[in-house]
# Entry
Amino acid sequence: MRSPAEVDPAPIPLLEDVRQPKQTWDSIAPRYGVTNPDPPWKSSLYGTCESLAVTGALDPVERRQEEDRLAEATYADVPQPERQLVALAHTLLRRGLLREEDLKRRMEAVRARLRAADEAG
# Structure
């Protein structure tokens, strides 16, 4: 496992699309009539961070330090809570804890559900 100082802050092409302003919760929620200010994935994000810490896969202090470094170097233009989500995905990809193909498949599934909701509504 790489130490946090070694994690490459260079942008990851797969994550670049979610950096777009049209992809933030503030932009997406009104399209679906959602008024909750917290995105539905926020609790899963916290649960994932907790699970990574409890299992020893990713130390919480290292994760936060890396999140701060990535926020400065790579994701300064991404609002919270999306920044935390993208930084965690970046960290997991760079450390080899998540495969890019798996993340891409999950992202495509979410996009398909959103498209289906757009078409139905």
